[in-house]
Amino acid sequence: MTPLHDHSKPQARRQRVLALTPRDQLEARWATLGIRAAYRCVRGPETGMAMLRGRMGGTGNAFHLGEMTLTRASVALDDGAGDDALLGHGWVRGRDHRHAELIALVAACAQREAWTRRIDSELVEPLEEALEARRAEASRLAAATRVDFFTLVRGE
Amino acid sequence: MYVAVKGGERAIANAHRLLADRRRGDREQAELEVDQIQGQLRLAVDRVMSEASLYDPELAALAIKQASGDMIEAVFLLRAYRTTLPRLAVSEPLDTGAMRIERRISATYKDIPGGQVLGPTYDYTHRLLDFLLLAEGETPPVESSEPPLAPCPQILELLDAEGLIERERDDGSEPADITRDPPDYPVDRAARLQMLARGDEGYLLALGYSTQRGYGRNHPFAGEIRLGQVEVEIFAEEWGEAVCVGEIALSECQMINQFGGSREAAPQFTRGYGLAFGHSERKTLAMALVDRALRAEELGEPIQGPAQQAEFVLAHADNVEASGFVSHLKLPHYVDFQSELELLRRLRREHEARRQGTGQEAGSPTSTTDERAAAPGDPA
User: Residue A61: inside a domain, yes or no?
Assistant: First the structure.
């Protein structure tokens, strides 16, 4: 089944990978890039909720399943650009303010051309590979519980 | 009539201290930590999240600790916390077909794409107490196998080439939200599913069971049950597109039930659906049975069992509401009760007077129930 939306767009891809990465791993990897950007929070970080929708039968009409905690942050880079300061936004499930702020900061920095390629190749790509590796490992554990049916042949 | 009564502050404060002491237990033992509850009592955490209608494993674990393991109290705590938060977004509909599978089985098709994946299940355990857990036995390492799982598509969509099973299609309608608009009966299926999703598992289990025992029978088969992780997407106005904000664990049950059909439509299997936070398989089975039972009117079935009566089922499913109203009986009702006592004394005096007045004649047919009905009711 194909994903709901195309995550190949750089902005959406960064947001997804960083939100699915544990915050300590993101923080550590971000530090290795050595990008020092002065910034200020223009919204949040703030915790609220997202109402989650399911579908009847998995494919039918939407219904409201329940809510989950969600934290969002928006930052502006302080580089003397005034009103044209680069803005970044971040969202993450749960209540981790620092995590949302980091995602927003990376999103803002990635808009500066000098940093875009490094952020994608040295931060997002390796974290995406790590994410896929964690998922593959979880999948192998589930796969060990897959049933191999065989038929007993009654002897003559 | 309400009369304010003061007093009891010290008793209440000391009762809370005693409660905290009992919760802490023997100081010789290590204190239970919230992340231990989150990591080692995860099914309790999942149930609290489902019934509180708020997905946050850490806070659910905290609620369980704070409530000393009283699940309904924990649900209440998390539900109350929920009311303090603003709603920042509404998600795109979750795509359970794209779930990262931890468990996935079908009781209707043996050979399915992706296979029957048992996952971490209590099924097939012997239900004998494991004394190794009492003796701090080592947990054996987990097995892993190559290759990883193949994609596991939704079975009912895939295997029903003949169209024998009812299909679920999105007509784009905007779902009701009972947290914004209180239910006004009769309610549609979207509102019913929202109410069932937060309903008490024990209650839904009993109602589902009642349909199997004949009170609104609908011949269910577990078409597919799946547990795993699903990505959550919200539409980000700022970027002008939907973005993934994380992942949540979900359980889903697709029930296949006996036939519906009409003059126009050929007979088809019908469906019931269950979806819940975390690893809540039993809840989703029960929910799917009750969802299907509540479709009786839509499918032209006679309403014969309690599980088919939507207002009765839905109005009593929420254990926060139910325990609130039942528990209010513990609040002082001194004045109410005084008035009942007064009434009862008067009725007895009248009864006695009638008995004296009519000699040994049998009691006159004065109805006491009418007077009772006219008496001031419970103001709460």
Answer: yes
Say if the Cβ atoms of A12 and B241 lie within 8 Å.
Answer: yes
Closest of B256, B269, B273 to residue B221, by C-alpha: B256
Nearest of B81, B92, B198, B180 to residue A53 by alpha carbon: B92
Task: Name the pTM for this structure.
Answer: 0.91
CB pairs under 8 A between A and B: 257
Determine, yes or no, domain membership for B136: no
Residue A94 lies in a domain: yes
Residue with tokens 């791993």: A25
Inter-residue contact A76 to A2 (CB < 8 Å)? no
Residues of chain B in contact with residue A76, where contact means CB-CB under 8 angstroms, are none
Task: For residue range A90-103, list pLDDT tens digits in order.
Answer: 999 999 999 999 99
Q: What is the pLDDT of residues B52-65, one digit of tens each?
A: 999 999 999 999 99
Q: Which residues of chain A lie closer than 8 angstroms to B269, CB-CB?
A: none
User: What single string gives the DSSP state of each residue in B286-342?
Assistant: HHHHHHHHTTTTTTT----SGGG-HHHHHHT--HHHHHHHHHGGGS--HHHHHHHHH
User: Could you tell me if B168 and B316 lie in one domain?
Assistant: yes
List CB contacts (< 8 A) between A7 and chain B: 244
By Cβ distance, the residue of B86, B169, B191 closest to A59 is B169
User: Could you tell me the residue range of the domain that residue B119 belongs to?
Assistant: 96-123+143-322
B64 and B200 assigned to the same domain: no
Residue B90 has its nearest CB partner, among A51, A137, A141, at: A51
Q: Do A1 and B171 touch (CB under 8 A)?
A: no
Supply the ipTM of this predicted assembly: 0.92
Q: Are A61 and B89 an interchain contact pair (Cβ–Cβ within 8 Å)?
A: no
The total number of structural domains in chain B stands at: 3
- Which residues of chain B neighbour A69 with C-beta distances below 8 Å? 54-56, 59, 85
Question: Is residue A69 domain-resident?
Answer: yes
